[in-house]
Amino acid sequence: MVNGDLAAAAEKLGLWYVPDPGSRASCTIGGNLATNAGGACCARYGVTADHVARIKAVLPDGRIIHTGAATSKNVAGLNLTQLLVGSEGTLAVIVEATMRLRPKPVQSATVVSVFSSVVDAVAAVVAIRAVAEPSVVEMMDNATIVAVDAMTRMGIDDTAGALLLIRCDGPAAEIEAERCEQGCRGVGAREVYVTTDPAEGDALMEARRVALPALQRYGSTLLDDLAVPVMRLPEMIDAIAWIAERYHLLIGTFGHAADGNLHPTIVFDATDPDATARAYSAFDDMMNRCLALGGSITGEHGVGELKRRYLEPMVGAVELDVMRQIKHAFDPKGILNPGRAI
């Protein structure tokens, strides 16, 4: 089932399926479970693993397991549900899942804030987190803003250093939005706009959802997915800018600012061997800098094949060995998704 289809079906019942990856119109629940996908709303509501109650999966030897329970609390044995979620198809094949739904928020408010620099935007994120709990805090840098405005003609200030798109929901949505506005203005936001119109809010949020397609108009893209502690965001973004200059590449950065999850997107000419080599060297430098800042090599997209070589530097040899022992216990013949993740 496609993520967006589940969300639409839930909405008809006045309910809400929360995890909302940028690709929700095409990504599947099975894929979301395999990678433990997040989305814009994960700042407040968590990722896919926080919204799954039960799983039915087929083991490599053909046996079927049913994990979890349709209860709010369950500590019976090891939590195999959480182990399978995010395992990237390396342990078992998930064939069925019971997902948790929430009541649809009755109120929402959206805040758009323009900043002269990414440093100011991150300062606003820190200020906001101290006084409010928005469900969405999305950030775009200047390169992404320019690409999005060129594609959508939304009239975004393309001289801005960064843009924050914030959404608050629930009974206190307007109060929380006011606090977010104050937090942004308190660190020197150039402009802040607030709306309580859900349709207008959705239209404003579309700027973030089209960030990747907007950058893809300029060439092939190598999309990264890294996470750093929120206070280290300015250092990571400065490093990305330096890497872009070093390798003479366009890198547009956007992502989920409230939890430090960034998607720096390298744009290059895939038909040019030199440009391709520079793109992958830039990717390598970003990964190394992320690790140096105490970050994670992947916040929500998974390790796959591309990031396997960064896994041991992040988790260490002992933890990686434990992961491989777990893999062997489930799949002693190594037939499930070989060469991926671990």
Name the overall outline. Answer: globular
Oligomer: single chain
Mean pLDDT: 93
Distance between the termini: 27 Å
Please count the helical segments: 13
How do the helices and strands follow one another from N- to C-terminus? HEHHEEHEEEHEHEHEHHEEHEEHHH
- Label the structural class: alpha+beta
Number-wise, the strands total 13
Rg, please?
Answer: 21 Å
Under CATH, the topology of the largest domain can be stated as Vanillyl-alcohol Oxidase, Chain A, domain 3
The unreliable regions are none
Largest sheet descriptor: 8 strands, antiparallel
Keywords: FAD, Flavoprotein, Oxidoreductase
Family: Belongs to the FAD-binding oxidoreductase/transferase type 4 family.
Cofactor: FAD
Domain FAD-binding PCMH-type: 1-104
Word description of this protein:
Its EC number is 1.-.-.-. Keywords: FAD, Flavoprotein, Oxidoreductase. Strands 6, 7, 8, 9, 10, 11, 12 and 13 form an eight-stranded antiparallel beta sheet that branches. The chain has helices spanning 3-12, 29-35, 42-45, 80-84, 118-131, 142-152, 173-186, 198-209, 211-216, 233-246, 273-292, 308-315, 317-330; strands spanning 15-16, 52-58, 64-68, 93-99, 102-103, 108-115, 136-141, 162-169, 191-195, 220-223, 226-227, 250-256, 261-268. It is globular. With 342 residues, it is an alpha+beta fold. It folds into two domains: 3-103, Uridine Diphospho-n-acetylenolpyruvylglucosamine Reductase, domain 3, CATH 3.30.465.10; 108-293, 3-Layer(aba) Sandwich (Vanillyl-alcohol Oxidase, Chain A, domain 3), CATH 3.40.462.10. Helix 5 packs across helix 7 (173-186), helix 10 packs antiparallel against helix 11 (273-292) and helix 12 (308-315) crosses helix 13. Strand 2 and strand 3 (64-68) form a beta hairpin.
